[in-house]
Design a protein that fits this description.
The protein is of the alpha/beta class and about 220 residues long. About 50% of the residues lie in helices and about 15% in strands. It folds into two domains: about 1-35; about 35-210, Beta-carbonic Anhydrase, Chain A. The mean pLDDT is about 95. Bound molecules: cobalt (II) ion. Cobalt (II) ion binds near residues 70, 105 and 106.
């Protein structure tokens, strides 16, 4: 058996996609090869079931994307910070989205105690979210509902973390328009839900984090 077959399939898919797109619009690729002016930075989970552009119905050039396990925003993550800085300061993106999803294996793993290796270090942030919201989470008796709430709280915490980055703080200090949004994607229905929209000042981020710290 040809070991490269799975990759060959991708090339075949790619050629079919090019044919389909150019049939609808012969200029499709030429238009999109021009310098892009995306209006959104999308920070999502690496999960293969959460394709940023498909689920937002956007085409190439519209979304600047950063994905990692469980859509984390660490204020010490050079990769995420570089994407954020480039998006906000160079591309002038005004909307930054953190998008979580239900059924997130990263969030599930953080809630479990079984060790997984290096990824446990990455998920430590979510364990802090669990500690911050222990009272609320423990009051939810249905384990599936508790996990969904943890997914929501994780998104809200990452929106707050975004507000704490030098990039966001600088943007707001100089009076630039920068809106942070927290969304969650429902895998089984394909629908996006808003958790927090239009956070455009440090006080609003504080209020968002605070309003979710008890209940
Ligand atoms: Co996930």
């Amino acid at each position: 058996m040809d070991q490269t077959q799975p990759i060959q399939d991708l090339f075949a898919n790619n050629r079919r996609w090019v044919a389909a797109m150019t049939q609808t619009d012969p200029e499709f690729f030429r238009k999109r090869a021009r310098p892009a002016e995306p209006h959104f930075l999308f920070i999502g989970c690496s999960d293969s079931r959460v394709p940023a552009d498909q689920l937002t119905g956007t085409t190439p050039g519209e979304l600047f994307v950063h994905r990692n396990i469980a859509n984390q925003v660490f204020t010490s993550d050079l990769n995420m910070l570089s994407v954020l800085q480039y998006a906000v300061e160079i591309l002038k993106v005004e909307n930054v989205i953190v998008c979580g999803h239900y059924g997130c294996a990263g969030v599930q793993a953080a809630a479990d105690t079984a060790p997984l290796g290096l990824v446990d270090n990455w998920l430590g942030n979510i364990r802090n979210v669990m500690r911050l919201h222990r009272g609320e989470l423990e009051a939810i008796t249905d384990p599936a509902a508790r996990l969904r709430r943890l997914v929501d709280l994780n998104v809200i915490e990452q929106v707050y973390n975004l507000s704490q980055t030098p990039v966001a703080q600088r943007a707001w200090r100089r009076g630039a328009r920068l809106l942070l949004h927290g969304l969650v994607y429902e895998l089984e229905e394909g629908l996006l839900k808003a958790l927090a929209l239009g956070i455009d000042a440090p006080e609003k981020a504080e209020a968002l984090a605070h309003s979710n710290h008890h209940g």
